[in-house]
Design brief:
heterodimer; A: 1147 residues; mainly beta; 14 helices; elongated; B: 592 residues; mainly alpha; 3-stranded mixed β-sheet; two-stranded antiparallel sheet; globular
């Protein structure tokens, strides 16, 4: 600690308390200086032993009555001073004192000036000397603010304003004072002759390091009782991030985010603290600038739900937002935080705050950035080449007692023709993407604006596929008067998706070039002799990528206007009106050469979808401090209404493939037009009180009362309360006295209820579906009784308990947050299976219980921070245990059915919801290796009574008889895996030295498994049809006793494994991935553009993955939009490996 | 300033109050795109409910694919599947409780629709005439569904009122006789209310008639009587036979139905309306221009039955060929070309065999429609077991080693799974055979029985107008005993109804002529089929004949041997029912 002033500046340290008292006295003394005409005897008597210079000067001041001023740059000697004088004249004393201190003195008008010796030649100007600054800090109401931190810029000392907001300190003229206070914008003031100062502090809702955005308002971080994670995205657009959630991957504990497939802009699995709903949605509520926006994955899927053959994985609707527009994201995880969103809070809430207008030096700031990406497939799956494939087929035939399929001569010929063929080389490419950003922001009098435009063209590594986005955002804020202000947020974006068979949902090669590229025979060429695409080779993977057209255009508008009026001190009224619309047009054409195109002579689908909603909020906010009591409360009314209108038509019978879907009038068989029209509304009354006593004890009470159209009359309204408690232990005096290293310790606990909105529209009403019947010679519609009226249906409710601790060490150089939670979801909204003999297969009801328990830990460390170096690191770990406790008497529910046709026929569910297990646990047969010899078959107790025993041969898979009846039957199916990791981690670091910055993020999941359904085709060693075989399966196949205990012998079974899904196709998908690395350098462009900043960088995404998973990518979730089909990889495009470089120019 | 503030507050308060009031009204749910209960009001709406009650039967899980094709065609001894996914599972007897939910669900959903229709009719005030027929259709469809269920699965849960949230979803299975009692009652209620065939306009074809109800009553009483007979309750059985005979007479005497003079016209799609002079009830299909494939209202029999080498007979793109997923067994084909039915060596287009075999088995094998002399891509096929007469032999012809079914031909179909061919559930011809059978069961062989059988044979001998020698007429001396006449009737049913979905029912219903405590199923699978060789027929082009050593075999599909097990006389209760319904009761014998 270096003392710079003697006088009014009050050091904060406790050891200085005595000095402070003296100094206060001196200040008063100095003020009286002008009136004091007398000159005391200017002699000094002192006995100093190991005293500091300042202490001695203090004595001097005392004894002489002179004030002592030090120039700010004086260096205090390392050595302490020992001297003894008695009645020594002042000048002589000072000479003696400063002799070894590299300082000299002068005395003018009862003031002693002390300056460094080395600067002796420099004329001493007044600016070097410090003067007393006096002033008062007030808030916008004119109320004095206590505890405001006042600091002289670039210096370490600070003072704190007293309870009336008054402060004094010493500073040089021209130096800059900064005023900071939690929840308020930092204010600066240059010292002039304008004493005393009045500084008005303005509340700053986006000052995120100190205030946390929560639902319908902000709360000081220190007053927070809920579990909230905040991420600042800042200027980071340097890694290839297409959709906002991607930027959060690995960054937040308790949040599982993954791209369902590697398609740019693909749907995301976004789960907060595990899955709570078995048949409903588990996506969190997304709130952008206070506006709950459409984030349902189906929003962009025009026609999909109404036209069975147009299924494709959904896009992420959030991909319409430009990540570079996002300032920060808060993730509300526990009930204390989410209950304010009531019936929509159970899956967590994600609050996204867009960037507002900012100004530096009162001028407009313009920036342009360009990023360019090169992406490629991260790995290839080694597949059989032509020779190996023929050997494999021959062996399969011979194992069945048949002659070889290929003669030696055919093998030789085919190897010459097809020797090097690898479909993966033909459908994938090095993709080239671009991202342009242009931003302007600044002040216009009392208005702030930020205007940004973005165009990004993201190519997929799969040929002819990609995702483009163009968007414009205007954020405009204006203070109309002291009382009234408005805020306008508007985003318009256009996206274009070229889907191009990037992933599989239907089990046909024509919907996935990815599966085609591994499973297609290596004995076919994509082109015929004339160099044209081979139409006769159905689902030729190259043809599928070249000719299949599947384009979706979406337009998204998200716009809101807030008007805020300060009614009285602390009381504010706000009205928000907002609209949000996503309109999508999907056009799809299956040409001849694809399964659908061949079936119907070309098939074109045109589907539209309009999802729109509007919102009106009325909010009253009351924030006041009374002595030690601090109240922050909000009450409001909210109404939101949603509309969904869709249509879809599929026409077939095209005379030519030339025009694709562009001229549907040409179709011989114009299809039926399906339409949907769904409306719903939610009406809510909400409130929250956040009370803090003395900064130590915290209480948050939250409640929301939601009324929904979707619920039956009489049951439309439900209430969602929560309570949160907090104790800032570090604000207790006993703690301060004993734990100086820990500057923050807070313990939080919360309990509350939130709901999930997945009650289907119309689910409470008795409904009929339309089915067609032929009466006479007409095909006429009839009404089918599809569900009974169900007035009791309500939300599923999640009660969650959270216990958390926040720790800050060494002035927050190390911060740590840890939360344990238990979420119990009751009244589970289940499509409960009932016997078909009841008329229906299932009905929606509220029954059962799912439990999620877990631990989230986040830590940040500022390792190094000085003028040149800045080194930070973060890390997080999440553990979640998901368990179905009860399903209302039902033991098991099945997920969707896979591969219900063709040679790869499986036709069963591989995922189940089973009581006692995690949601979407994998379901199939346990295996115990391979039968090595006939004796093993004969003596195997697993099959001692099995009627098919005689058909078994060495080399077949040994299935385990789970129920002990000596037969392998359906009753032996059991849980063979789970999609959820045991724990997930994310960690990373950012290092900057001078102008060079380096950052990286790792993420990893451990203990998770994936259904590698590709193996059903390429790892079953069944050559029914012409599927290729993976080299892993071929090399490790059984070919005699003791050769393999994993893969069976090649065979020609009609039905793979007799339809039994073996557990070896469930694979460990643990992984650790270097998600991104970024290296940047900031330039200043000299001369011409002094204020311009220029940055250039290179970055990489998905650079390497450590995993044992045999497929492309262990971190996919092909059907992630359905909870009960989680954890499957089937023809799923992997995340690409991307290298990017870019420049950012800021003026 | 003060006034501004207070007026602003007042404004906000007023606006908020208005908004709150306005918006509160909007929590009523309106579903514009779905029919809900309260929207069903008048006869027009109820007509749609009636249509809906029929509408599941032509679905894939109904008679279109997974139900009808799999259960009714592939569980017998006459047909087998080569390919076609789920179909092979049935053919190979590799199915189990996981495979049998399709038909089950279809019938129970239809029962649900019928119960719902009755409930709506009870509650709405409609014209008595309309209500009468509507009730009749509801009872008919409920009886029809239970009748299929009880034959396929044995005793099943009886649900006879509309299912609501308050209903008991978990009913136990009823005894077989309880189910039959319900079936008889419902068909009788239906018969009282349904119109005669002659009162049914062509535009209503496909809807139930009084005659259809009587026909099913005859067949159901016979079937139930057979069951009692097999269980040793002979006098009860006879009582049922007698009732069956009455209902046969009701149909015959009603004059509503005739045998078409040309058997071939029954399956001529362009004459389908005319076929309903003989067809008493059919599941109607129609090539559906608006929907495709699986979801279309068209049938897929043509695609499943016809050969891949026969072009221009289906809507399959691009050549209009079939997939021959379902084929007749060689022994079965041979059987109906020999004995009473032919010379044993049938010739293409020649009257040396039963006309019905010629119609049932598609004989014109060719993969193209161009002139055989000039055309390219054209190849004649020899379709088992037919050969061409010596004067019209074609060199270089290929061969189809099994015959393919020729009853369902529709080159105007829109795609492979979208054809106009109906599934005939009951034809008048069957009423004649039912009557012949009950008379035989009651009285032993009589001329009356013989004459009834011969009515069908006479029609077959008339063929398409050119009389034939085959089939020979049945005489009392050829079937002197009750068992031998029963066997004749069994065989005749096989000739008349090939690939019409009756074979398995006949197998499990009829007593074996060898052992009266066994069924024909036991006899055929247990005794007869194992005597056959498992050979696939082969064509000897040098001698222009089918290799005699490979003829008449039984192709067991991909199963190594013929699977005989008495459990196959009932289908297993679907797993989906058993595991969810704790009250159901035991699984069918042998399927536990």
């Amino acid at each position: 600690m270096r003392l710079r002033t003697i006088g009014c500046a009050v050091p904060m340290e406790a050891r200085q308390i005595l000095l402070t008292m003296k100094i206060t006295f001196l200040c008063i003394f100095l003020f009286c200086l002008q009136s004091r005409a007398t000159t005391s005897a200017q002699t000094i008597t002192i006995t100093a032993v190991d005293m500091s210079l300042t202490d001695i000067l203090d004595q001097v001041q005392k004894q002489t009555g002179f004030s002592v001023l030090l120039t700010s740059d004086i260096e205090e000697s390392e050595r302490s001073i020992t001297m003894k004088t008695k009645n020594m004249p002042l000048a002589q004393f000072l000479s003696k004192l400063l002799k070894n201190q590299q300082a000299s003195f002068s005395i003018r008008e009862q003031t002693i000036f002390i300056k460094p010796t080395k600067k002796e030649n420099t004329p001493i100007s007044d600016a070097h000397f410090q003067q007393l600054i006096r002033g008062r800090v007030v808030d916008s109401e004119g109320e004095g603010m206590a505890g405001v931190n006042i600091r002289i810029k670039n210096q370490h000392e600070s003072v704190i304003s007293d309870k009336n907001g008054n402060f004094q300190l010493r500073a040089n003229k021209g130096s800059v004072l900064t005023f900071s206070y939690v929840g308020y914008a930092i204010s600066e003031h240059t010292v002039e002759n304008d004493l005393p100062l009045t500084i008005v502090m303005r509340a700053d809702e986006t000052s995120l390091d100190e205030v946390v955005v929560v639902g319908y308002g902000t709360v000081r971080k220190s007053d927070l009782t809920g579990s909230v994670s905040s991420i600042k995205l800042g200027e980071n657009n340097e890694n290839r991030v297409i959709s906002v959630p991607e930027a959060l991957q690995g960054r937040v504990a308790g949040v599982n985010i993954l791209n369902n497939t590697g398609e740019p802009g693909s749907g995301m699995t976004f789960n907060i603290r595990g899955t709570t709903s078995i048949t409903g949605s588990n996506q969190p509520l997304i709130v952008l600038d206070g506006q709950p926006i459409e984030s349902d994955l189906s929003a962009t899927n025009a026609g999909m739900s109404i036209d069975w053959q147009s299924e494709s994985p959904p896009l992420d609707p959030l991909a319409s937002l430009n990540p570079a527009d996002i300032e920060s994201i808060e993730i509300l995880k526990d009930a204390s935080a989410t209950a304010i969103y009531g019936s929509r809070g159970a899956n967590g809430v994600v609050l996204i705050t867009s960037k507002s207008g900012k100004s530096k030096d009162n001028r407009d700031q313009i920036s342009y950035s360009l990023r360019t990406d090169f992406s490629k497939l991260p790995k290839k799956i080694p597949m059989a080449d032509a020779y190996t494939y023929m050997m494999y087929r021959n062996e399969a035939a011979m194992n069945e007692g048949r002659g070889p399929v290929y003669s030696d001569q055919e093998i030789e010929e085919n190897v010459t023709i097809y020797g090097d063929l690898n479909w993966q080389d033909m459908v994938y490419r090095t993709a080239h993407s671009m991202d342009h950003q242009l931003t302007a922001s600044g002040l216009l009098g009392k208005s702030r604006y930020r205007l940004s435009g973005n165009f990004s063209n993201n190519e997929s590594v799969l040929r002819n596929a990609g995702f483009k986005r163009g968007s414009v955002r205007l954020n405009f804020d204006r203070d109309i008067s002291d009382k009234l202000s408005l805020s306008f947020r508007s985003n318009v974006s256009f996206t274009h998706r070229k889907y191009g068979a990037q992933s599989n949902t239907q089990g046909t090669f024509s919907s996935s070039a990815v599966i085609g590229a591994i499973a297609s025979t290596p004995l076919r060429m994509p082109y015929n002799e004339d160099g044209e695409l081979e139409i006769g080779f159905a689902n030729n993977p190259v043809l599928v990528t070249e000719l299949l057209k599947d384009h979706t255009n979406s337009e998204t508008v998200i716009s809101s206007l807030d008007l805020e009026y300060k009614i009285t001190k602390g009381l504010t009224y706000k009205i928000k009106g907002a609209v949000n619309q996503i309109s999508s047009l999907r056009q799809l054409y299956w040409p001849r050469g694809t399964f659908q195109g061949d079936q119907y002579d070309g098939s074109a689908t045109r589907a539209t979808n309009i999802n729109s909603n509007y919102l009106i909020d009325h909010l009253l906010t009351y924030k006041r401090n009374f002595d030690k009591h601090r109240i922050n409360s909000v009450a409001g009314y909210s109404y939101q209404q949603w509309f969904r209108k869709g249509s879809s038509v599929t026409s077939t019978g095209f005379p030519t493939d030339l025009l694709g879907y562009e001229n549907m009038g040409m179709a011989e068989l114009p299809g039926i037009t399906h339409t949907t029209n769904q409306n719903r509304a939610l009406q809510s009354v909400l409130g929250r009180v956040n009370y803090s006593y003395d900064g130590r004890y915290l209480l948050t009470l939250t409640g929301r009362y939601d009324g929904a159209t979707r619920l039956a009359p009489g049951n439309k309204w439900s209430f969602f309360p929560s309570v949160g408690l907090g104790w800032n232990v570090s604000n207790e005096s006993f703690f301060k006295a004993h734990f100086t290293a820990i500057n923050n310790l807070k313990i939080r606990a919360s309990y509350g209820v939130a709901g999930s909105e997945s009650v289907g529209i119309g689910a409470t009403q008795g409904r009929y579906t339309i089915d067609h019947v032929i009466i006479g010679d007409r095909i006429v519609p009839g009404f089918n009784y599809a569900s009974f009226s169900n007035a009791l249906l309500g939300w599923e409710t999640t009660r969650s308990f959270n216990l958390g601790v926040d720790i800050g060490i060494l002035n927050d150089r190390v911060t740590l947050s840890a939360d344990i939670y238990q979420k119990t979801t009751n009244d589970l909204l289940l499509n409960l299976s009932i016997p078909a003999s009841s008329t229906f297969r299932s009905y929606s009801t509220n029954t059962g219980e799912v439990s999620n328990k877990g631990l989230d830990v986040e830590a940040n460390v500022a390792i190094l921070g000085n003028e040149k170096w800045n080194w930070n690191a973060f890390g997080n770990i999440s553990i979640n245990r998901n368990k179905i406790v009860d399903m209302g008497g039902t033991d098991i529910l099945y997920g969707g059915i896979y591969l219900n046709g063709g040679n790869s026929f499986l036709n069963q569910s591989l995922q189940v919801a089973k009581v006692g297990e995690a949601i979407s646990s994998f379901w199939g047969y346990r295996t115990a290796g391979i039968y090595q010899n006939p004796l093993e078959i004969a003596s195997d107790p697993n099959i001692q009574n099995d009627p098919n025993k005689a058909a078994l041969r060495p080399g077949d898979v040994r299935f385990v008889d789970m129920n002990g009846d000596g037969q392998i039957t359906d009753a032996d199916k059991t849980i063979i895996g789970k999609p959820n990791p045991d724990f997930s981690i994310g960690f990373g670091s950012s290092i900057s030295y001078d102008r060079l910055t380096l950052s990286f993020t790792f993420l990893g999941n451990f203990g998770q498994q994936l259904i590698n359904l590709n193996q059903w085709l390429i790892g079953s060693l069944t050559n029914k049809g012409t599927y290729s075989v993976s080299m892993d399966a071929y090399n490790n196949r059984w070919r005699g006793e003791g050769t393999s205990n994993k893969y069976p012998r090649p065979n020609l079974d009609d039905l793979r494994f007799g339809g039994k899904f073996p557990d070896y196709m469930i694979e460990d998908a643990s992984f650790l991935r270097l998600q991104n690395v970024n290296l940047g350098y900031d330039f200043t462009i000299p001369e011409l553009l002094k204020t311009a900043k220029f940055r250039t960088y290179v970055s990489g995404t998905n650079l390497f993955t450590i995993t044992n998973y045999l497929g492309y990518d262990p971190n996919v979730n092909a059907l992630g939009n359905q909870a009960l089909m989680s954890g499957v990889d089937y023809g799923t495009l992997p995340q690409s490996r991307t290298f990017s470089m870019g420049v950012i120019l800021t003026y | 300033m003060k006034t501004i503030r207070s007026s602003f507050i007042r404004y906000v308060a007023v606006v908020s109050a208005i908004l709150v009031t306005l918006q509160s009204c909007e929590l009523d749910e309106v579903i514009p795109d779905v029919i809900t209960e309260e929207k069903i009001k008048d006869e027009k709406d109820v007509s749609s409910l009636i249509n809906g009650a029929y509408a599941l039967l032509n679905n894939p899980d109904g008679f279109k694919y997974n139900g009808g094709l799999a259960f009714l065609f592939l569980a017998g001894d006459d047909l087998y599947a080569a390919g076609g996914g789920e179909l092979e599972t049935f053919s190979n007897k590799a199915f189990g409780p996981n495979n049998t939910h399709t038909f089950w669900n279809t019938f129970y959903s239809t029962i649900g629709n019928a119960n719902n229709l009755i409930d709506r009719l009870d509650k709405l005030e409609l014209s008595p005439e309309f209500e009468r027929r509507a009730y009749g259709e509801a009872y008919f469809l409920r009886a029809f569904s239970y009748y299929f269920l009880v034959r396929l699965y044995g005793g099943v849960p009886l649900r006879t009122s509309v299912t609501t949230r308050a209903s008991d979803f978990y009913l136990k299975r009823s005894e077989v006789d309880e189910v039959y009692a319900q079936i008889f009652a419902d068909f009788k209620e239906a018969a009282e209310r349904l119109p005669m065939r002659s009162d049914l306009p062509d535009s209503d074809l496909g809807r139930a008639t009084k005659g259809a109800a009587h026909g099913f009553l005859a067949q159901a009483y016979l079937t139930f009587g057979n069951q009692l007979d097999l269980a040793g309750q002979v006098s009860d059985a006879h009582a049922n036979y007698a009732i069956a005979q009455n209902y046969c007479d009701s149909v015959i005497n009603s004059g509503q139905y005739v045998l078409l003079s040309d058997y071939g016209q029954l399956f001529n799609l362009s004459n389908e309306t005319g076929a309903y002079n003989e067809v008493m009830f059919g599941i109607r299909f129609s090539a559906d221009p608006l929907r495709r494939g699986y979801g279309a209202a068209g049938s897929e029999f043509a695609y499943r039955f016809l050969g891949s080498s026969s072009w221009n007979v289906t809507g399959n793109k691009p050549n209009g060929n079939g997939a021959a997923h379902v084929r007749p067994q060689p022994w079965y084909t041979d059987f109906y070309y020999s004995g009473d039915y032919g010379t044993g060596t049938p010739h293409y287009g020649q009257p040396d065999h039963d006309y019905r075999a010629q119609i049932s088995n598609y004989q014109r094998g060719s993969n193209g429609n161009l002139n055989p002399v000039t055309g390219e891509n054209f190849r004649w096929m020899y379709m088992y077991p037919v050969v061409h007469p010596e004067d019209s032999r074609i060199t270089g012809a290929g061969s189809s080693t099994t015959s393919v079914i020729g009853k369902y031909i529709d080159p105007a179909g829109y795609d492979s799974r979208n054809h106009g061919n109906d599934f005939f559930v009951m034809r008048y011809a069957e009423i004649l055979l039912i009557k012949a059978e009950v008379l035989n069961e009651l009285n032993g062989p009589t001329q009356e029985s013989i004459d009834l059988i011969n009515e069908l044979r006479i029609r077959a001998r008339n063929a398409d107008g050119t009389p034939r020698e085959y089939p020979t007429l049945v005489t009392l001396s050829a079937a002197p005993t009750q068992a031998s006449l029963r066997r004749k009737i069994f065989e005749e049913r096989g000739a008349e109804f090939l690939a019409e979905g009756l074979r398995w029912f006949d197998l499990v219903r009829m007593k074996s002529h060898e052992n009266p405590s066994e069924t024909m199923y036991d006899y055929q699978f247990g005794t007869f089929l194992p005597t056959l060789s498992p050979n696939t027929p082969s064509w000897q082009s040098s001698q222009q004949r089918w290799n005699p050593n490979t003829r008449g075999g039984y192709i067991p599909g991909s199963v190594a041997s013929i699977t005989y097990h008495p459990k196959f006389k009932l289908f297993p209760i679907p797993t989906s029912e058993l595991i969810i319904n704790p009250n159901f009761g035991p699984q069918n014998p042998g399927w536990q």
